[in-house]
Amino acid sequence: MVRRIVIVGGGSAGWLTAGLIAADHQGSSLHITLIESPDIAPIGVGEGTWPSMRDTLRRIGVSESDFFRECDASFKQGSRFNRWVTGADNDYYFHPFVLPQGYDEVNLPEQWLAQHPDIPFADLVSYQPHLCVNGRAPKQVVTPEFSSVANYGYHLDAGKFGVFLRKHCLEKLGVHYVPDNVAGVASHDNGDIAALHTQAHGALEGDLFIDCTGMQSLLLGKHYQVPFLSQKHVLYNDTALAVQVPYPDDNYPIASQTSSTAQSAGWIWDIGLPTRRGVGHVYSSAHIGGEQAEAELRRYISDTGGPQDIPPPRKLSFNPGYRERFWHRNCVAIGLSAGFIEPLEASALALAEMSAAMVSDELPATRAAMDIVAARFNEAFTYRWERVIDFLKLHYVLSQRRDSDYWRDNTASVPERLGDLLTLWRHRAPSRNDFNRIEEVFPWASYQYVLYGMGFRSEFTNPQPRQAALADGYFREAAELTHKMLGGLPDNRTLINHIKRHGLQKI
Q: Which is deepest, 191, 228, 248, 420, by most CB within 10 Å?
């Protein structure tokens, strides 16, 4: 029987996994232990989430008000992409979290091109880009915890988030905590992991071991030698420079979206928290040197109102890719130990959430059932990692920029499945027929936002003029919602200050 679960590594992935399994299986005979090295600090730069995090936190049983107070959290309503299409200063588009009005009822891209081609696609079909431009929050002070007026995820301080989750897991969910270093791995005769040898606590035995040790992948990578499938031939970025930027004053507006601003050989993220901005330059070291990359980062910070005397940025190197298998024998990897592509579209935490949720939902009762669950898990997450790569690459291959080798090279390497989809989309819009799994990583509406935001134009060969009136109704509905929400929603800082002082209503 599977009764003892040992999670190796803390951080966001480890504590999310511990929290989900412990909350879902409260009252059972499961015993959950998390071992975390006191000598290894978490990477701590994964500061953006998807709306799925709201469901995850609610499932774990935390208070959203406490989360905002303790994790320096703010609202995220999508992503804004600057200078990705042409490189011009006025070049931008949005990928909002809200689905287009009527997206499942009418061919919106066809009617957009026929009726309003001069308006950006997302601006026409969704109210959320307008909320972002105007710095509005996605809910009101009377909206209960985890509920929304407009769909939202979070920006957060990753270091504080791990501490917040650890406190909840230990105080409310009964997770056993071992602050120690793993010194070795003991195996059964059949190759399963039997126990982990620790420096101070001896052997920790378990039935299922979850590897959340980050990029070192202590169990799946180092112990089991499961191959790593590099994707550097598709997505070139392999280095990031990260820095925390103070606001000019305590009342400075908090951005409602993650901003991604393209550079000569990469892009710069900009995330607004209540107390600071998290800014970083992710780039390809094969296309630009570190000094030039840092100069671009400092120029961006200065141009966006930040100080010129920022401290030296923290440098992070990574090999984009994922493991050939994620669950091998009685060991499953979650988080960076399973892989990492790049920060674009904030998929890292989302994949960790999905992985932890599937382990909890499908938790095998016996070792005999584990191989069946492992095969399902590996198939599901191989598909998901491949779709993440396709979606991220879509941003690059559609760019019209030819001002550097980086942008020219990016258009020359297109994954086969993505290339096939682009061929189809020359004459029709992305639809549910292209992404027909129950839990797709990115819905087909997201592909529409990026595809048409990046300047792609489908030439519809079988027009449906009878949908014109129906589409026009949805366009007007989006405009009416925009007007209503701009008048009724507070700005981000006002709502966050209210949450810190008074909290939100419990559901």
A: 228
- Domains of the chain: which residue ranges? 4-47+157-231+320-382, 239-317
pLDDT of residue 109: 97
Q: What stretches of 280-343 show up as alpha helix (H) in DSSP?
A: 290-303
Residue written as token pair 């059972």? 28
**Exposure b/e, 132-146, CB count within 10 A at least 16 = b:** beebbbbbeeebebb
- CA dihedral 35→40→46→52, nearest 10 degrees, is 0
pTM of model > 0.70: yes
> In angstroms, rounded to a whole number, what is the distance separating the alpha carbons of residues 504 and 65?
6
CA pair distance 281, 296, nearest whole angstrom? 8
Sequence length of the chain is: 507
Task: Check pLDDT > 90 for residue 430.
Answer: yes
CA distances in angstroms from 325 to 185, 212, 355, 368, 379, listed in the order given: 20, 15, 13, 19, 9
Closest CA to 11 of 59, 46, 53: 46
Strand partners, 187: 193
Any residues with CB less than 8 A from the CB of 402 and at least 6 apart, and which?
408
**What is the per-residue pLDDT for 46?**
63
In 134-247, DSSP assigns E strands to 153-155, 176-179, 182-187, 193-198, 202-205, 208-211, 228-230, 239-246
| The CATH number of domain 4-47+157-231+320-382 is 3.50.50.60 | yes
pLDDT at 39: 84
- Distances in whole angstroms, Cα of residue 59 to Cα of each of 34, 360, 454: 19, 12, 36
